[in-house]
Amino acid sequence: MSDRSDATSTGGRFAGRTAIVTGASRGIGLAIAERLVAEGARVVITGRKKESLDEAVEQLGGPGHALGVAGKADDIEHQADTVRQAIENFGGADLLVNNAGINPAYGPMVELDLGAARKVVEVNCIAALSWVQHVHQAWMRDHGGAVVNVSSVSAVRPAPGIGFYGASKAMLISITELLAVELGPDIRVNAVAPAVVKTKFATVLYEGREREVAAAYPLKRLGVPQDIGSVVAFLLSEDAGWMTGQTLVVDGGVTLSGGVE
Q1: What global pTM score does this model have?
Q2: Catalytic pick from 106, 165, 206, 217?
Q3: Would residue 76 count as lying in a domain?
Q4: pLDDT at residue 35 above 80?
Q5: What's the CATH code of the domain at 38?
């Protein structure tokens, strides 16, 4: 196990802490990892492609700051191996961000392929719970910690076209609340619910019509990954030390106008 004391030399809210961020080779996950590293954390990031993870690790400052572990988010063996590597290489697993998610279908729910629906629940909900179980057993049960689950505004407002994705993210919010009750006082569990953020994952929601989509937002722009990274960092930090079981909507105000786009 690595000596954690040298990490404190970086300063910041997360000095000496180790974070695991799933689905972090790009987009929101990478922005979260960047913010945590900037504030002193060492970060273990996951994703399906080793090459993309290697590039992300370099972007995060190299192996002294980050480690990439390739695998599928819903693979139990990958989850266990990632947590083990976090503890062995960086000395702990203090923070967990369940960012990995999928949405393989777009269109009316009445036409949704049920196999795709089951996979959405498997990755977006069951896998998130499984990640918490692994970090709890291996580290947080004895040392405490904080968890943030990345949900979506489609969990709190109907989102035609991505309705079942929204349903899965609503389930993730419920899981967040239940875990907060069960794991307090030493482990806090919160969630964020972003609206449309300019990532490859969300391209179908704005490509070719960004100005039109952004017009519905009181702040008149779509989100960028850093908008979510800063809020996740807040929830993981002691600045949010009296918050648990909460979902922060980060949406440029769009839900105030009754929509999610």
Answers
A1: 0.93
A2: 165
A3: yes
A4: yes
A5: 3.40.50.720
